[in-house]
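Appendix C reproduces, verbatim, an entry submitted by the partner laboratory led by Prof. M.T., so that reviewers can inspect both the input and the predicted structure.
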Amino acid sequence: MSKSNWIAIINMAAGGGKTKKDWPAIEAILLKHEIRFEPCFTDRRLHASIIARNKIKEGYSKIIVVGGDGTMNEVINGVFSQKRIHTTEVMLGMISVGTGNDWARMFNIPADYEGAITTIKEQKTFIQDAGLVTYRKNGKAWNRYFINIAGMGFGARVVERSNRMKEKGKSGPALYFYNIFRSLLSYKSQKASIEIDGTTYLRKVFSLNVGICKYNGGGMIQVPHAIADDGLYSITLIKKIGKLNVLANVKRLYNGSIVTHSKVETYMAKTVQIDGSTPLHLETDGETLGHGPISFQIIPKSIRIISGELSA
């Protein structure tokens, strides 16, 4: 098959198994639109990274991701791990079949399959920033690239609970909302030292989001000030806050007005480092990773994605 054609990396487990059920319909729409592609199915965690890296090495540079935000995250890590071409020479399209689909929401990629595939066919591209985070797990330091949001503290706890439910086949937009309430029962804010572009802040952290894009947690807008190609992280820090105060402000997490709350601070930065006596836990793009100490660096305009219609 010509290397000018696409590969499709398909995560059958995404969306609590929704991809497996819907793949015949997705495939039929791709063929109807005469998009020639080689299907590649993932069968384990991080397999999408390996497929992306190997296929780019073979000469491919056009990838359709069929799955959720976590599948896209794995593919991004595969793009960065290969050395054959610059990362911006790879073109990434998305057909969302996940639970949150927050990254696709940022770029107005239609949720329906026909609309998403039409968007891919039109190939309107946008070059966005990527992030690189270093963290700890099992006594070792690890690196992970991401293109949406990294969450620490309470947000990471919610994602961890949600991911455990996904592994049991649960899915749907209410999943994160449900786990906000479940996680509140036992969560305690943690002391942390946060260095933002060289300035250190000592805070008791309820939740901390370091974002390239705006949406996470199935539609929350915790970093409404994020611009995907400005070369900066947008940071929202929620300081220690009472449980009843959290419940009273859940709506503000979803409409972006949480950043005006008296317990919230926002920043813009190229680098962020976080440490504390009790390490904060970390998730990126909805994937549970590890814990602190954590450090971030931005990689400006490094990923070429196919977007929907973007507002001016």
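The mean pLDDT is 91. Additional entries are available on request from the coordinating office.
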